[in-house]
Amino acid sequence: MNPAGGARPDAETTSSVPSGRVPETQAVSGREAREVREAPTPATRKTPEDDAVVDVAPTAPPPAGDRAGLAVPPPAGDRTGPTPPPPAGDRAGPTPPPPAGDRLGIDAERLGRLLGDAGLAWLVDRARQRMVRGRPLTGPVTLSHPDESQRRAADRLLGRAPRAGGSLSVRLDTVDAILRRSGVSRDGLAAAVVALTGPVTLRAEVRDREERAWEKAYAPLGALDAGLADWAERIRRDGLVRRLARTPEVAGPLVADAVRALRALPVSPPAARATFAAQNLSGAHDLDDGKPLATLVLSGIRWLTGFPDGAGGPWRREAWASAGLLMDDLSSTVLTLNLRGTPSLDWMADAGEPAVLTLRSLTRRTPVAAVPATGTVHVCENPAVLSAAADAFGPKCPPLVCLQGQPSAAALTLLRDLSAQGAGLLHHGDFDWGGVRIATALSRSVPWRPWRYTAAHYRAAVTGVADAPDLTGPPAATPWDPDLAVALAECGVRVEEEAVLDDLLADLEVPATEDIAEHRG
């Protein structure tokens, strides 16, 4: 009823709906209903018409303003003009990407609770190590001496009663199934490990990448001469560069510097090692003892010159000197008999006494020694031969040079000077593997012919020596007479120079006018 007492058709329609109910034919969202229930109460007294509005009749009455004959603005959504922007969450535009865990099908929060426990760190680490090695995540992993927190974490993960024992075992495929079934990690344990610890790189891929880097570091070795090709291959195999450099990034410059130094060797005339380093490398101290570059270059020098194995300061000094690099010019010496060319040498030759020449004396004035009238200089390995020749023949002995073992820088300098002047060199050494290596090293510096140093001479010496000692050391080639290496291997005994001293002295007694080469056969 309206205030005037008349009945309105719409009020009757509303009265057929019980108060507070919504007819089944009219669906209203929860938000809409809530807005209606929370609408402010008018200050005027409620009328039946107001009840009808509140009860949401099928046909809603016109707004109050319409009933009063007043213009009422339409609801916000129906107003004409610019439409206010929607809330930020509803605005059109690119949808932000989901978190990383969601993209991987992982519930990061639950995963942290399930596998992120400190007591399961060992389990995650074991799984990651298997992934790095490319092995499947199946089978058990065992912790030998777990603490109580690690036992509790494993039991909680697997949903089992606490267990006692000396070790703790967990099957990885069981953990994988738990993660998949629970929805924590859609792709199982492997994806969970990546989410917890970061991307996994297969060890094989790392190894291949490192090998490519090492090959790049070794590339400068290809610029070496043929004489060092075998050395370059050897240091690839034996790991010398890897031990010195540790990483390919360090090895690259190291190998490049070593190649640059070796390509400039041997040095003739000899020079100070520091001067050579300053001229060919980055600084005067680059080849100082103890530096990786010095070790690598010295290895190449020994291959180049045939310098034997050894250790200690004197050995290193002579090894450097074998390629013409001097640590000092007084320590390296050579023993001679009856060479002439300087007042001091002439005086010693007149007396028939041995003379010791230093590297300094040989490099300050060249040439020091003159070629003898015969054009030939005999070369022996052991001082006993030179001493016996001085005793036997004195000033009448043909010129003789003693290497005193491995050729020193002084010996090589003297023999190079004599050879350059046209002297012929005749060499004899011990019949053993060390002796033939010395002879081979000498041949890399100067040309020489064998002096009673062939297979025939060795076999003859073996028959004349009683109780000869056995050969030791690895075999070596004898390029001047390949049959000599064969004979040494067959007979298996060593014959030192002192054992054939009488034969050598007999050769030195031959008149100077006789052709030494023809006499030796």
Radius of gyration, CA atoms, in whole angstroms: 50 Å
Please indicate the percent range of residues in DSSP E strands (runs of 2 or more).
5-15%
What share of residues is helical?
40-55%
Determine the mean pLDDT: 80
**Distance between the ends:** 153 Å
Unreliable runs? 1-98, 512-521
Number of discrete helical segments? 26
Structural class, from secondary structure content? alpha/beta
- The tally of strands reads 10
Q: Order of strands across the widest beta sheet? A: 6-5-8-7-9-10
Biggest β-sheet, characterized? Answer: 6 strands, mixed
Q: What is the general shape?
A: elongated
Write the layout of secondary structure elements.
Blueprint: H1 9-15, H2 30-37, H3 48-54, H4 64-67, H5 100-103, H6 108-115, H7 121-132, E1 140-143, H8 148-158, E2 168-171, H9 172-182, H10 189-197, H11 203-218, H12 229-238, H13 240-245, H14 248-263, E3 271-272, H15 273-280, H16 292-305, H17 313-321, E4 325-326, E5 333-337, H18 343-351, E6 354-358, H19 359-364, E7 376-380, H20 383-393, E8 400-402, H21 409-420, E9 424-427, H22 433-445, E10 449-450, H23 455-464, H24 482-491, H25 501-508, H26 516-520
Parallel strand pairs: 3-4, 7-8, 7-9, 9-10
Antiparallel strand pairs: 1-2, 5-6, 5-8
Helix pairs in contact: 7-10, 11-14, 14-16, 20-25, 23-24
